[in-house]
Amino acid sequence: MNHSREGFLQAVIFSGIILYLANSIGFFDIDRLTRGVSNLFIFAADLFPPDLSVTETLLYSILETIQMALMGTILGFIAALPLGLLGARNISGRNISAVTRLFLGGIRTIPALLWAIIFVVAFGLGPLPGTLGLAIYSVGYLSKLYYEAFEAVDQEILDAVRAIGISRLKEIRFVVLPESMNHILSQLFFMFEYNVRSSAILGFVGAGGIGFYMINYIQLFQYQRLTTAVLLTLAVVLIIDSVSARIRDRFLTRSSY
Description:
The chain has helices spanning 2-24, 30-46, 55-87, 89-92, 94-108, 112-123, 127-151, 155-163, 168-202, 210-219, 223-255. It is mainly alpha-helical. The protein has a single domain (57-255), classed as MetI-like (MetI-like fold, Orthogonal Bundle), CATH 1.10.3720.
């Protein structure tokens, strides 16, 4: 009976918190919700039909978006691999690992959009600041995923190779990396897919790519052109997701034999 009362009390408290939060952000403001839904229908009507006259221009910007995502992912991967090794306690030791993780945690607290703004201020408008923003963001997250994968390597295997006096570099090359390769590549592909989607948003702050045109169309109320940009972005993202998933699955299938 006490457990039932405890559970009921917890449910009431939790529900009260949810209701308070919902009310504080306007979920129960009926007039506001009604106006918002009405505005959404008006906005949706303005989006169609798509203006296909800008397709050629947008295709070039989509290509720039993919280039930003690809270069950002590659640069991030190059830096993330050694940082992941430094962050793994079973490889670099607790002290070095702690410092590395603190550094990577600081990087992850800043979103890619803010990194892009910082680099736009430093380097001006264009794809370069967007690429650098994605690269730094990729470093923070890939490094964390990688040091977790490295720490998951069987400790008995590491102890066995260390017992025969193998060097640390050979240990990493012949044991740690092969044991973690599936995870490394899987997360790399996922990061590229994520960066393709993110790079479209970075254009909103002048960091190049199709997002630059999207924000211009919004500011100029050219919503039919915005629809074309969104549809092209959606198509490219779906294609890249499908292709990268097939490549990832094929590699993982081969490596499992």
